[in-house]
UniProtKB/TrEMBL annotation:
Superkingdom, taxonomy of origin: Bacteria
The CBS domain, residue ranges: 20-71, 86-138
UniProt entry keywords in alphabetical sequence: CBS domain
Alphabetical list of NCBIfam families matching this protein: CBS_CbpB (NF041630)
Origin species: Planococcus massiliensis
Name this protein carries in UniProt: CBS domain-containing protein YkuL
Length: 147
């Protein structure tokens, strides 16, 4: 039988596990959908944050939202890509996690999200927390408990 991870572990601050903002590919408010699609395609990431010039978190953009925005009745209207701003099509209704939160809160939220955007009290973008990183930590903990 596998023992449950210890309380201490679940209380670990998430700050230890985040990919910090300077390593996260992002686009800025005002960038075109064409630019966002280029970044998404080049990096291979499924979604990336949209930030304002002060590095505050504004939303997420992904290829599906971009394609959806240029879907015509007969064909995909690629020529519209430069005229659409990420601001118009980014996703804003998503859960954020504060940098001061603990592992358990991240675990709860990552059931439904591939990754979480991490902000501070002023909404400044601090980085992301991925399901992959959290699962790795959980695996490590479970293996240690079995020893
Ligand atoms: P991964 O767990 O590495 O597969 O990452 C899951 C998702 O998190 C990716 O598809 C991206 O949407 C996002 N992601 C991970 N690392 C980065 C990064 N360095 N910059 C931007 N987005 C990232």
């Amino acid at each position: 039988m596998i023992s449950l991870p210890s309380r201490d572990f679940l209380d670990t601050p998430i700050e230890e596990f985040i990919i910090s903002s300077e390593k996260v590919a992002h686009v800025q408010l005002g960038n075109s959908a064409e630019h966002a699609l280029l970044v998404l395609t080049k990096t291979g990431y499924s979604a990336i944050p949209v930030l304002d010039p002060k590095y505050r978190f504004c939303g997420l953009i992904n290829a599906q939202r971009i394609t959806d925005a240029i879907l015509g009745l007969e064909h995909i209207e690629y020529e519209r890509l430069p005229d659409i701003k990420v601001d118009e099509i980014m996703q804003t209704d998503l859960p954020l996690i504060n940098i001061t939160e603990r592992f358990q809160r991240a675990l709860d939220l990552l059931i439904d999200q591939n990754f979480l955007c991490v902000v501070d009290a002023e909404g400044m973008f601090m980085g992301i927390l991925t399901r992959r990183v959290i699962l790795k930590q959980l695996k490590k903990q479970i293996y240690q408990l079995r020893k």
